[in-house]
Design a protein that fits this description.
By secondary structure, this protein is α+β, with helices and mostly antiparallel strands. The protein is built from 6 helices and 6 strands, in the order ααααββαββββα. It has a two-stranded antiparallel sheet. The chain has a two-stranded antiparallel ribbon with strand order 3-6. The two termini are 39 Å apart. InterPro entries: Phage_virion_morphogenesis (IPR006522).
Length: 165
């Protein structure tokens, strides 16, 4: 070969980052836990603001109107039941409250026996043939959640993978 160019580069910083990336498996539960805590907080905030994932206000419930309360916050059971679970490949946020899907997606409640459903609210009884629960979404990622997740991931990479390199 009559002509050759040899380029030498110091690859030690890249090798150090690759070594750190190799330790990601031992760190990812911490990352997923932080993301889960942030998303859990976002769900809790939707209850406090009474808004869905898109920022639209929930339809005010009959009970809240009659008692001057807050929709889906009478006892706080559902709001306080949301938690996150770290998985090997991510994180899930949810609740074990059995009626949560009906309140999230909406539902039509029909009488189990007889023609009417009887509700007691504030000492008053009301008989209806059906009760329609409008959807009041609590779960899902909005634009702020997406930014939060990206910020958490970026900070995590910076702190654990780049600075440690």
């Amino acid at each position: 070969m009559a002509f050759a160019v040899t380029i030498q580069a110091d690859s030690s910083p890249i090798e150090a980052v690759l070594k750190q990336l190799g330790s990601f498996d031992s760190l990812k539960a911490q990352l997923f836990d932080e993301i889960g805590a942030g998303l859990e907080s976002s769900v809790h905030n939707r209850f406090l603001t009474g808004t869905d994932v898109d920022g639209n206000p929930w339809k005010i419930s009959w009970r809240a109107r009659m008692q001057g309360g807050e929709t889906l916050r009478d006892t706080g059971r559902l709001m306080n039941s949301y938690t996150h679970n770290v998985l090997s490949s991510g994180v899930e946020v949810g609740t074990d409250v059995v009626y949560a899907p009906h309140l999230h997606y909406g539902a039509t409640i029909l009488p189990k026996n007889g023609q009417y459903i009887t509700f007691a609210v504030g000492g008053q009884y009301r008989k209806v043939k059906q009760s329609i629960l409008p959807p009041r979404t609590q779960l899902g990622l909005d634009a702020e959640d997406e930014v939060m997740v990206l910020d958490i991931v970026g900070s995590f990479i910076d702190e654990h993978l780049l600075r440690g390199a």
